[in-house]
């Protein structure tokens, strides 16, 4: 089982994502952040705790208040994390998908919602 961090401002999406992850029995949601700033703060906190459970996978929305997904990616570079990041957005704009591929930290792009099939595919990696 992989530890998963959700960073998405849509609580309904987070609820449905948690259900999908539980249904696949392939992951465990360890934390949810409602914007990129909370995500950065999460990593700042766990960097100071040697026994902290760290995420294996980050599911990251792009359009959020305070600090969006792109800004989170820029800030995330400072952390020594091996977490695999998947953009999970309602945007299927080719330019967003292309921009995501320009970030070496981003392993894939998922158009919402996260389905059982998509969860199994990305969590098996």
Helix/strand layout:
Layout: E1 2-7, H1 11-24, E2 27-33, H2 36-47, E3 57-60, H3 69-76, E4 84-89, H4 94-101, E5 106-111, H5 116-124
Parallel strand pairs: 1-2, 1-3, 3-4, 4-5
Helix pairs in contact: 2-3
Descriptive report:
The protein has one domain: Response regulator (Rossmann fold, 3-Layer(aba) Sandwich). The chain has a five-stranded parallel sheet with strand order 2-1-3-4-5, with helices on both faces. 41% of the residues lie in helices and 23% in strands. It has five helices and five strands. The radius of gyration is 13 Å and the shape is globular.
List keywords for this structure.
alpha/beta; Rossmann fold; 5 helices
Concise structural overview:
By secondary structure, this protein is α/β, with parallel strands linked by helices. It contains five helices and five strands. The protein has helices at residues 11-24, 36-47, 69-76, 94-101, 116-124, and strands spanning 2-7, 27-33, 57-60, 84-89, 106-111.
Q: What does the overall shape look like?
A: globular
Average residue pLDDT:
91
Largest sheet: 5 strands, parallel
Secondary-structure content class: alpha/beta
Number of domains: 1
CATH fold name, please? Rossmann fold
């Amino acid at each position: 089982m992989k530890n998963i961090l959700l960073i998405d401002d849509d609580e309904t999406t987070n609820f449905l994502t948690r259900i999908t992850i539980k249904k696949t029995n392939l992951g465990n949601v360890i934390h949810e952040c409602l914007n990129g700033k909370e995500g950065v703060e999460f990593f700042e906190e766990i960097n100071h705790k040697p026994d902290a459970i760290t995420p294996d996978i980050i599911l990251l929305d792009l359009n959020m208040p305070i600090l969006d997904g792109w800004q989170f990616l820029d800030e995330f570079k400072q952390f020594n994390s091996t977490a695999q990041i998947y953009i999970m957005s309602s945007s299927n704009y080719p330019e967003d998908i292309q921009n995501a591929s320009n970030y070496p930290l981003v392993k894939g792009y998922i158009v919402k919602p996260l389905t059982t099939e998509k969860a199994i595919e990305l969590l098996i990696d």
